[in-house]
Amino acid sequence: DTAxxxxxxxxxxQMGNDKSIKCEQNLGHDTMYWYKQDSKKxxxxxxSYNNKELIINETVPNRFSxxxxxxxHLNLHINSLELGDSAVYFxxxxxxxxxxxxGYTFGSGTRLTVV
Amino acid sequence: xxxVEQDPGPFNVPEGATVAFNCTYSNSASQSFFWYRxxxxxxxxxxMSVYSSGNEDGRFTAQLNRASQYISLxxxxxxxxxxxxxxxxxxxxxGSYIPTFGRGTSLIVHP
Lengths: 115, 111
Fold this sequence. Notes:
Chain A is mostly beta strands and 115 residues long. Helix content of chain A is 0%, strand content 55%.
């Protein structure tokens, strides 16, 4: 049983396209996140949702729009993709905003390449 | 921007060696700390939480020094399978709850 699953695993697309990444967790956690890991391996939080409510919205271009239909799902839609958007995007979940002492559980990542 | 600093390494050690990593954080409001392990092209996985009194899990020991604002990870009797990147995370309590990840320290354990 995969705890945090995200699709697709790989995404290659042209500049200017719109794409979505989906994430689902079956851990019963109430908080979900999107992280971006760039080519320098720097992992940065983009968004977090707690009980479907947007809690963290870091300095991210408004071309990125998260959507949480329920506590178990958090999707990420990206409009007008740019070369600089190429990165690995990780979904994660936790119980509570502070990780509940157990930290964050990450999905396996979506490797996005914009050409 | 509040930062978490790590020596990127790589730390190249033989099997059986003891190796230690430090991680400094600049946000004095940080209350929760974690060490994550990330294998190449994989997701980060929680290695251990770091408690104020220090904690040990098998060959791994984590320490927190609030006065100097750093956390450490000690790995004893290194195994080949310990080769990975180790990320430290600092999380402030209350307010934004925005976790800050370090860039990671690369460990290579060789035969």
